[in-house]
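Hi R.,

Here's the chain you asked about this morning:
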Amino acid sequence: MYELKAIIIGAGMAGLAAGIALRQAGYDVEIYEKTRKLRPAGAGISLWSNGVKVLNKLGLGKEIARIGGEMNRMEYRSHTDEVLNHINLLPLIDSVGERPYPVSRTDLQQIMLEAFGEDDVRLGMRCVAVEQDEQSATAIFEDGTQATGDLVIGADGVHSVVRHHVTGEETQARYAGYVNWNGIVEASPDLAEKDVWVIYVGDQKRASMMPIGDNRFYFFFGCPMGQGTQVEPEKRSEELSKIFAGWPQAVQNLIAKINPLEVNRLEIGDINPLKQLAKNRVVIVGDSAHATTPTLGQGGCQAMEDAEVLSRFLITTNLSVPDALKRYEAERKERTSGLVLKARKRTDTIYGKPPEVTQQWYKQLKEEKPQDVVNALEKIILGGPLR
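And here is the predicted structure, written out as tokens:
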């Protein structure tokens, strides 16, 4: 039996998930990563049940449960500490058949690297071009090295080189209009209850903490800001203190506990939905295909879903590799494009574009039934390939 060979560009969540899935199918897989040391972008990630189900299928269920936080409730509070909404997530877990697991990105990447084989990822390999013919596809690297297989999978992020080959166009990231600060702190009662994801909102800003494994909270702050601002790492706690002055005591406690040198400060953006995700023997997954703002918590989950759908079509379709990739594109394009636009709309609502819409949202949070929130989350989760 002929063994299909896949060349994957990028060792983030999307590349590793695709690599694990295809290796488990018996395929020859090579992963190439441009950095010389793997450092996840951001501190934590909310893995909702649709992403967790893919990881379960890849054999990582026990590990995800170990590194993930037990998140049983969500709570919205105002910047004056008024409880706006309190959502019990146990009915959601019952309806979709799996827990969500907020996790440290470093922990997640490590268990995925171990599952694929850490020594099998080639580091310091920057892809500069892709070529293909009727029989194969080739990735070309900065040092002149080439890697050829039956297909090339671009998991090389927002600034993807592989995407340019697929679409034939330069795709620019779109600034979403706000800055995000994030990191990890030890969990403690003066911040939040250990099984609650708490989100403070007000003045078109937000501050949040969610439980992850090892008795820690993943935290993030968001504030509308013009593009191009820079603040030195040692000044980031001071910056947050000014922006969130007067906010509830738990938020002040969080800022006081932060090591400013360990806070990520990111200008958040996305890319417009693409017309094409595949071109003959070359395909894109994850942020290369559908980079999104993090306001739905679906970026990582969609990367997992990409891996599941791509591997399924490569395994079950024996007409040709291009045919399998075309079927992958047909299944994934509508779902991922819809979620990018939905997340974009929610981002605008949260961060004051326009301010009157944000004020209406605060009012809606107070009036919204918790079951409506559960239903909305359920719809997104069950829209994935593993129901």
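One quick note: The chain is about 40% helix and 25% strand.

Cheers,
M.
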